[in-house]
Amino acid sequence: MAKRILIVDDEPRYLRLLEANLRTEGYEVATAQDGVQALDVFSAQPIDLVLLDVMMPRLDGFGTCQRLREFSNVPIVILTARGEEQDRVRGLDLGADDYLVKPFSATELLARVRAVLRRAQPPAESGQARFFTHDDLKIDFARAEVWRGEEAVSLSATEYRLLLQFTHNVGKILTSEDLLTSVWGAEYKTDKEILWVSIARLRQKLEADAHSPHHIVTRSGLGYLMPPNEA
Amino acid sequence: MDTSTLSQLHDIFQAVQQKQDWRVALDTLFVSLRGSFVFDNVAIYLRDPRTRGLEVAYARAMGRGKNAEADAVWGESVANDVIAKGQIVLKESKRISGSTDRLDLAYLLGFPLYIGSKLGGALVFIRFGGPAYSELHIQTASLQAFWAAALIERRDLQEARAELDSVQRQMRLQDDFVSTISHELRTPLGFIKGYSTSLLRQDTTWDESTQREFLNIIDEEADRLTRLIEDMLESARLQSKTLQFKFSPVRIDALLRDVATRINTHHPDLKISFDIKPLPPVRGDGVRLSQVFENLFSNAIKYAPNSEINISVTAVDDKIRVAFADKGEGIPEDYLPFVFERFYRVPGERTVTGTGLGLYICKQIVMAHHGNIWVESVLDEGTTFFIELPVDPTL
Predict the structure, then answer these.
(1) CB-based contact (8 Å) between A57 and chain B?
(2) Residues 6+ positions from A96 with CB-CB distance below 8 Å
(3) Does the beta-carbon distance from A82 to B189 stay under 8 Å?
(4) Is any Cβ of chain A less than 8 angstroms from the Cβ of B210?
(5) pTM above 0.90?
(6) What is the pLDDT of residues A81-113, one digit of tens each?
């Protein structure tokens, strides 16, 4: 089956250039003009690779890459017009598989695409799910939106990151140190109080009864976990 | 501490800390605590970081010592003692025998001010004619001295932060400038490279209409790059003031009609109407001023397509004012303050080619004429650029 590639760039002439060349190699092509549109297009169909421009209105390439990585391991190639090292490093750190500095030649582009597709793992089981549900809790990773039942829940950036630790490790006990290190950074590793406060606030927002939580459960002396969905 | 003292302290703390200006905060502090500690004068001396000498930074006469300018009255020698010893100095000036003037008997109380853990100055309280300071007075005064030091430190931090902010803003502008240039130059270059290497691919063939399409894009992007480089050189020359202006009397009405005629030969459908009163000439460089109006025309053609353009010229005091109005979509208010900035482009206008330099160049030229340029815009009604140029004073 032909691989489908999503091209994201706000310059119509780049979209045309990339699309024309990719089609000659037998790829199918989907396009988007900014990050927000890209996430919608991505969720609507199976995509094998994303070519992502950095400087875009609304949601830029870095933001889009980060958001995609919250629920998908699709190969991502960043297209940057700025060749500075910090830009390339930032893209790779956010989960991009490769980058291409503009201006680039058509043949190099196609070679990169072939190489990245060759290396790409088949989508993992947790794969491409844009939505996550746990009982009455629902998350749209692409939009970073959370609902409890029909009600939208507003989380701070830290609360959202903390919640993602649980959704990505359902059924696994996470220690305070794990959580503090991955959400706040290694220098907060022993700062348990800040975690207690944040867990309490998260429960206030997510749980029907914060005193007998269902989503984020305490395992005394061990840590916290999000129990598996009841079948 | 009993409740009423605590509540008083709370009120004083709030009143003092709320004052943004450190001098006003100090005034509030000293006045608030006068009930517990009476003094006539207070002075703060700070070390000048360069000369290391003491400079008076704050002085207030609260009572009986007003109008007195003698040294003893302001305690500078006590301040020097405090700095030399690094500790509290209590001094009673000797009454000259036979004198009955109260000012001859001064009680001076000096405190070191530690600012950012360094001995940064001294605060001196002066009271005339006694009684001598009690232990409680000295404690109250000491509290005020600590507090004053904290307020001065706050001032230093505010100043340092303001300086840092301005340096950072400068750096960000520099950064933006470099990254904008590199982005602006790379964009057309990227198309030229991308589309030409596409045509050069040996593993595929393109049909003739695609080939034409690609070649046209390459051609247009090469033009865009040329224009960009020209504009950049021009704006760099204007920025560094190396562009020479040749000033002479210029009739703005004639110049405008000239430019309009030239524009109409390229854009015969563009409607241009004039509303011009007889006017004295301005002092200007005709070539550069034409460039300004050409730029306004080309903007109007790009951003307000199919709109007619109305140009009115009036005399306002000793200036000539040109109003250049289109009936296009207008520019959102949020973006208006930035349109004359170098490389600024109104977001969402990316489909229309432009370098973000045109209006910057216009502004530099008008400024070189000691004139003024600004813009007013109403969404869905249109945009008007105003240019004011001084009337030639030699006429």
Answers:
(1) yes
(2) A52, A65, A76, A77, A78
(3) no
(4) yes
(5) no
(6) 766 778 788 888 888 999 998 889 999 999 999
